[in-house]
Amino acid sequence: xxxxxxxxxxxxxxxxxxxxxxxxxxxxxxxxxxxxxxxxxxxxxxxxxxxxxxxxxxxxxxxxxxxxxxxxxxxxxxxxxxxxxxxxxxxxxxxxxxxxxxxxxxxxxxxxxxxxxxxxxxxxxxxxxxxxxxxxxxxxxxxxxxxxxxxxxxxxxxxxxxxxxxxxxxxxxxxxxxxxxxxxxxxxxxxxxxxxxxxxxxxxxxxxxxxxxxxxxxxxxxxxxxxxxxxxxxxxxxxxxxxxxxxxxxxxxxxxxxxxxxxxxxxxxxxxxxxxxxxxxxxxxxxxxxxxxxxxxxxxxxxxxxxxxxxxxxxxxxxxxxxxxxxxxxxxxxxxxxxxxxxxxxxxxxxxxxxxxxxxxxxxxxxxxxxxxxxxxxxxxxxxxxxxxxxxxxxxxxxxxxxxxxxxxxxxxxxxxxx
Length: 419
Fold this sequence. Notes:
- The protein is of the alpha/beta class.
- The protein has helices at residues 14-25, 29-35, 75-80, 84-90, 99-118, 189-193, 198-205, 221-232, 259-264, 290-300, 317-321, 403-413, and strands spanning 4-10, 37-40, 124-126, 129-136, 142-148, 156-165, 169-171, 185-188, 212-217, 242-248, 307-311, 325-328, 332-334, 339-341, 351-352, 355-357, 375-376, 382-383.
- It folds into 2 domains: 4-170 and 332-417, FAD/NAD(P)-binding domain (3-Layer(bba) Sandwich), CATH 3.50.50.60; 185-252 and 288-328, Rossmann fold (3-Layer(aba) Sandwich), CATH 3.40.50.
- The chain has 12 helices and 18 strands.
- It is globular.
- 41% of the residues are buried.
């Protein structure tokens, strides 16, 4: 007989664990675990995902990660309050903390959640295991197939009434069919921000007598985080050392806490498109924040004569072809395995710019306009859009993501699983 659970959590990174943190702080996680939960992830870590690998600062201040803790007597708060990751992150309460430190903090939270799952006789934690297929049966239960990566053998199957599916996003590939000459560094922003290309770049810039040509494709936080690393890790924003072209589809936007703050900074604001109606913030989701904000503002004010902004519509391919370093920072699309119906046919999800479209309850919309009930996806490459209920500015067409969103926006929307 196939084991059956109330909820299967596919992926144990920040997206899937954060709503469980919300439930724990609402004293509802035990009730959910009593119903039967299985959590499956290919890594050995719960709560972290790839976050700790990024060699940059967060795009939020440290206090954001503490907002979920409204009760100092909660078991989770008393647990995390004793950890060094908590005290270190508190030092960045009003500034942007390094992402590896945020990763340590979320990893400690993940250990607490892991222990709760393991110690509940109705629930199970399966690490070093990868989900390979999800089938929606005619009885509306999901049949999940997964493989233990450390013990090759027959795949295992479980049944679940509900699914959390968030296994991380994948970056859109721009150069899959493009052949670059040898000797260049061509990579996605996540590889660069994790330091995977550092050795090659150091070799490229060593003993150079003329500026190196760099192209960064994108204008969001990822693109400016790359620029930030070029400045702080490689000291390459000096005009004598580099010429950098930022190739953008959308204008560069800055985040401000209020219209007054933006106005005093002489930042132009579209009163219809740029203001979040719920919070009054300017470019709440599309705007550059903290370290990227300051660098973005400097670029917009032409502080760096060697940084050139180019609209993709006016792009000359010779700019990319002549660059020794080319970085793709154009965002993420959904990383999703094939999900099939009982007859083996792929269930077609509606997508926009590579991202899965969901309804208010985080259920994916199908191409026929219906939604997949009891299936929840809200991480990178899928999830909520800006709206009057979700907040955000009209100019932002991407998906809302981040630990705060997963805890405070997604958390209340999955409380129905406890009832």
